[in-house]
Amino acid sequence: MRRRDQRLMMISVAGAVLVLAATLTFAGLRDSVVYFVAPSELAEKASAGQRIRLGGLVVEGTVRREADGASLFDVTDGVTSVTVRYDGLLPDLFREGQGVVAEGRWQPGQAFEAERVLAKHDETYMPREVAEALKQRGEWKGDPPP
Amino acid sequence: MIAEIGAFAAALALALSLAQGVFGLAASRRDSRAEATAAIAQAAAVLCVLAFICLIALFVRSDFSVAPVAANSHIDKPLIYKIAGAWGNHEGSMLLWCLVSAVFGGVLASTRGSQSLGLWSRAVGVQGLVTAGALIYTLFLSNPFARLDPAPMQGSGLNPLLQDPALAAHPPLLYLGYVGLSVPFSLALAALLEGKADQAWAKALRPWTLLAWTCLTLGIGLGSYWAYYELGWGGWWFWDPVENASFMPWLVACALVHSAIVTERRGSLASWTILLAILGFGLALLGTFLVRSGVLTSVHSFAVDPQRGIAVLVLLAIAMGAGFGLYAWRAPKLAQPSGFAAISRESMLVWNNFGLAVAAGVVLIGTLYPLLVEALGGGLISVGPPFFNMTVAPLLAALFLVLPFGPMLTWRVGDMRQALLRLAPAAALAVLTLIIALVTTHWRAAPAIGLALGVWLIAGGLIYLWTRIRRGEGAALAKVAMLPLAVWSMSIAHIGAGVLTLGAVAETAFRAEQAVALSPGEGVAFAGRRITMIEIGEREGPNYSATRANFRVDSANGSRTIGAERRFYPTSPMPTTEVGILSSLDGDIYIALGEAVRDGAGAWTVRLYHNPLVHLIFIGVSMMGVGGLLSFVALTRRRRATL
Description:
Largest interface: A-B, 50 and 57 residues
Number of domains of chain B: 3
Shape of chain A: elongated
Number of helices of chain A: 3
Oligomer: heterodimer
CATH class of the largest domain in chain A: Mainly Beta
Order of helices and strands of chain B: HHHHHHHHHHHHHEHHHHHHEEEEEEEEEH
Number of strands of chain B: 10
Shape of chain B: globular
Helix content of chain A: 25-40%
Largest sheet of chain A: 5 strands, mixed, barrel
Largest sheet of chain B: 5 strands, antiparallel
CATH architecture of the largest domain in chain A: Beta Barrel
Radius of gyration of chain B: 26 Å
Strand order of the largest sheet of chain A: 2-4-5-7-6
Number of strands of chain A: 7
């Protein structure tokens, strides 16, 4: 092969890889992006079975555990509350009255099936999404302590 | 008094680094100025060391009149964590950033080697400006020596999750990596200013790049290991923005390590190497911004302070503006000698760089996309592991497919037929693995391909070592002993990548997890074993109290006991999980203790994981780190020999 042909070949392979990577990236961003939804927006924003992140405050006195180890708790944004079912170990920072983000799927009329529950490393931390949602609803009670 | 000495030393270091910048950039024509620049850089480094020692002393003495000490330390903390507390917080970690930058500047100033006066002094100058930028940020926006009035009687304690040996070493290593990338950046800007990036320049660049890459590798590995055994989630990598923030510079540094070889050995790819050096430091700064500003929701949490975030963004803009501006202006003038064929070691290294750079780009898009969507009013979103798995994994797979060919091919023009012949046993093993994995997993393609690639990398690396050993002279042992360190280091790192691949694929694809409620005496069948809770009780630690449960794990190989804990630190309202891990050859049994089941008659929730081959992940990362270190030793030794 002449040098020019070789260069052409390398460039076309690189181009093909780039196109493939771009396709994967855009397909990935379309399919695996997870939207953040507050409990009161569930009905209007989320379609049944879609993977979403549900964020809000854990309602005091609603955390209960089932015999199979699954946890149930209610999450509220001050307007509506939704029952979340999580069949894993709740994170160390999970606590009643505090902010939480549950990632999973929702079916109308059933508990929100969480696959992941996020509470943050730092006890003073409020998930930003939860703070935003609470601010929008006027439920925000000032910045968390430093 | 100590705090004032520290602050004074840091301020003096700032003045000196600014002088280092001015003198360094102006020194190109006079040797006397160059000597002054070197002396200034060394003095700045010493002052930064002094400032940092002052900060450590404040933490050791528990001087709660100093803000970061009061916020992050506690009288009852063990000494080692008082010391680690110095860099376990935002202010202290920024001072560490300055320290590393200044010390690297000092070392750079003391090791001119064969570089031309202009290149060297300008690199020292740019490094001085980088240090100055970091010191300005530290002193004016996050002063670690700020006093509190009145001083509290007691500190609020370090986050107990962070009271851990792996996490004490994690930030310094990561910062050595991040800030280590500032030296290639300085060298790149110096080359652009000089309009010259020759082989001597690349030779000076390589040890710094390797040092940064090795520290990033080990730092990320330690962080991942810590997340695995401390967080109690059973996983080791979560594609979290904070993890991505360190992974992107790692990918670019990895590309830079390889492209610098081409520039040094063949003189080509100089302008690409320069671009990577600029990008690498840019991503390191972006990582600092993402972590410190809190703009991205993360499972990790750090200081959320918009003002600091904006300041880092300004520093990023200045550094990248200067870098890319100079690049656009001067790079076309750099000479581009010696071409190479499509099949050659150069071309393989180009593919390596291409794959790593595209992977870094994809991770960057996935990490910043939520910010972009939010800025455009598209709502709050998150991009999770599925995105990264489906984009990064195929890219790395393609990269790993060509990797073993690189060392087998010669420079300029390689012989693909010969390389294929030599690698045939590795290919056969890989295909065999693929078939066995496909059959045993009922045709799950992705993990089978991953495992086959792991085997391909390991076998390819071993074959390369073997061909190099055979080429030597004398007795068998003499041949092994004669093998250059550079061959060992590369092979160990590449085999390590294969080992890591095996572990990562096996753990991700075949892990099992189960949540159960157990009371003492009760057991459950899990992953071919029987796990029984023996007892559960209270226990007192040095500065915490704990609930500890002991489990018996019965398998075909006998019976073992492990304990899992839930710890309560009086300084912190949250309990932490100490998981019980039982390692065996085929992987880990991992037990995390939850909470007492309400009305469950003494039952506790317990989460069980089986993580097959997970130790290979950490062994693989360690091998890559060792490979990097050996290569660094080989380069510095060679450099000393030529001085």
